[in-house]
Amino acid sequence: MLAEALFSTLTTDRQYRYAVAGFVPVTSMRTDLSEQGPLMLLGHQLEQGLITEAVKRGLVAQDFKASNSLIMNDSSDRALSRDLNHLSALQSIDYYITGTITEQQNGAMVNARIINVRNKDVVAAATRFFPADLFYTNEQVSLRNGQLYRAEKPEHAVYTQE
């Protein structure tokens, strides 16, 4: 639904290249690698999912994290990197797709936007609320923003209808 709202006003023009950057917490504007809770994972999933949605809609998604060659070690091989030594210095990007995540008591508000690289104009924007139960459905205890939350029902609770 977020992708539909974001891309609904764009016309498909294959001469422009779109790069999808990470979605970050609005409070810090950066990813905290020590925090890999559901909201950080939501930011990563939005980034990856919007690449897919852009391509499905006929846009050219430029993957700026694609390395110049395969990176191999004893345990893996990969083509994506954040190491500037593995990436091209020259990027051919016309628009950024990015956004912020604002944690709220009952979930997270996501604000996405498409920004013209040259003049910083926002050419499309969308907002979507993601409910907390999307993230915390089976957990009895969870850590959010350094606070411990317990979500359990009493074992012998009796529920009646009035």
Please, could you describe this protein's structure?
The protein is 15% helix and 37% strand. With 162 residues, it is an alpha/beta fold. It has a five-stranded mixed sheet. A two-stranded antiparallel ribbon has the order 3-4. Strands 8-9 form a two-stranded antiparallel sheet. Helix 2 links the parallel strand 1 and strand 2 (60-61). It starts with a helix and ends in a 12-residue tail after the last strand. The relative contact order is 0.19.
Keywords:
162 residues; globular; 15% helix; alpha/beta; five-stranded mixed sheet; 9 strands
The helix fraction, in percent, is: 10-25%
The neighbouring-strand order within the major sheet is: 2-1-5-6-7
The value of Rg in angstroms is: 20 Å
Look at the structure and give the mean pLDDT.
Answer: 81
Structure described in brief:
With 162 residues, the protein is α/β, with parallel strands linked by helices. Helices cover 15% and strands 37% of the residues.
What is the strand and helix layout of this fold?
Blueprint: H1 2-7, E1 17-25, H2 38-56, E2 60-61, E3 66-72, E4 77-80, E5 95-104, E6 107-116, E7 122-131, E8 141-144, E9 147-150
Parallel strand pairs: 1-2, 1-5
Antiparallel strand pairs: 3-4, 5-6, 6-7, 8-9
